[in-house]
Amino acid sequence: MSIVAPSKEQSKRSAADIFAAFEYQWNYFILMLLKEVDEEVTISFEYHDDVDVQSEDKIKLYQIKHSIRKNKKKETINLSDRDVDLWKTISIWMKIIDDQPAFLTDSEFHLVTNKAISKNTFVKAIESYKETKSVENLKSAIIAIKESEREKSDIVNSDSQQKKKGLDVSKVIEELLDKTYFTDFCNQIFVSETPGQLKEKIKKIMSNRFGLNCNRVDWVYEQLMTKLRDDSIEYIESGQAVSYTGEIFTERYQSILDIGRQKIHFRTDYSFQDFNGEPRDLLFMKQLFLIGDTKENELDRIAELTTKWLCFNNNLHEYYNNDIFIPDDVNKLTQNVCSAWSSCYRSKHRKITLESTNEELCDAGCNTVDEMRNKEFSLAGNQLEEFLSEGCIYYYSNSATNIIPELPLIGWHRDWKDKFKK
Fold it and tell me: Where do the CD-NTase associated protein 4-like DNA endonuclease domain residues begin and end (predicted)?
């Protein structure tokens, strides 16, 4: 008999399912890690089980099962009575108990799946047993699963998988019913249903547990997930278990969490005396000179505007260099400033043409900068007061910096790019 190779589409589905299952398992590990508030409890990935949670007196084993398969309504399929995910898990746990009987005494066995479990006969049976303690009803329900005539959905979703995975569900059920620890084991089994995507759930727990600023949640999530994954690869390559106590987790990732919690207080006590140099050489001042907003001999006015620029500049660079601001914070501010400027500039230069006089060009420029001075901006979720907001527009119309090498990004005169942007 010749071997039939899977189609490209089948291969894609298989690869997608494997990747999604691993991602789901990893994300559930992170979820459990974030949920645990006891610093002495150890959370492990692929150690005793897919995930395990070990305290001084108990260990909880978690089998994490994920499916990307959908029913006709585009919903994740149900956990059927003869589902391979269910009975393969039962089989794994029985082997653990057979090899290490002590596991049964101090353990809980958790099956976590994104499949719907409400109609599963076994799940209903063990939940009922925990309330009624009726062994007869429990065995009767499980025997019914073994002996029931299989529906088409079970044949497709379970029997074909059994052959593929080498699992005989009926045999597993027989083994379970014959175990001397049958009732004790069933009493320690828990089946729960979770969403197919855990990302938002992780973010919510992360935000609540560590008191993150709302604008920093996405950044902390990306940084933390990347660092955890990189560290885990190092553990695996060195032959160590991927395990964390709450204490180790907090200590190792404290710097990321601190940035996420940081409350920012802007300094406004910088003075003109803190500036070293000739203010009239500042590019933002040259832009204002060009349109006649400020004259080169207005020393008090020049000092006032330079101080506003300096205050914003120093706050931005000090906090950025100390990792209190992150690139995403600056990118959002840049987007907001440029968007506001674009609207103002277009509005005030709408009637400007190639034949416009210098006076008309200067008026349009002055009107543009005047309107921008009335704008209020925020940085890293913190509202900039009027003083800093005005300093912000001077920063964006000034020379390039290591933070934003594309500066200047805004200007006032019609020809500002030709005159000031290199």
Answer: 22-230
Residue 371 contacts residue 293 (beta carbons within 8 Å): no
- Distance, in Å, from the CA atom of 387 to the CA atom of 396, rounded to the nearest integer, reads 15
β-pair type (59-65, 382-383): unpaired
β-bridge mates for residue 54, sequence order? 42, 59
Q: Where are the domains of the chain?
A: 8-196, 272-420
Q: Which residues contact 374 (CB under 8 A, 6 or more apart)?
A: none
> What distance in Å separates the CA atoms of residue 321 and residue 316, rounded to the nearest whole number?
8
Give residues with Cβ within 8 angstroms of 316, minimum separation 6: 325, 330, 379, 395, 403
Residue 155 near residue 148 (C-beta atoms within 8 A): no
pTM of the model: 0.63
At 313-371, the pLDDT tens digits run 999 999 888 877 888 889 999 999 999 999 999 999 999 999 999 999 999 999 999 99
- Identify the H or E element spanning 200: helix 199-210
CB atoms within 10 A of CB 304: 13
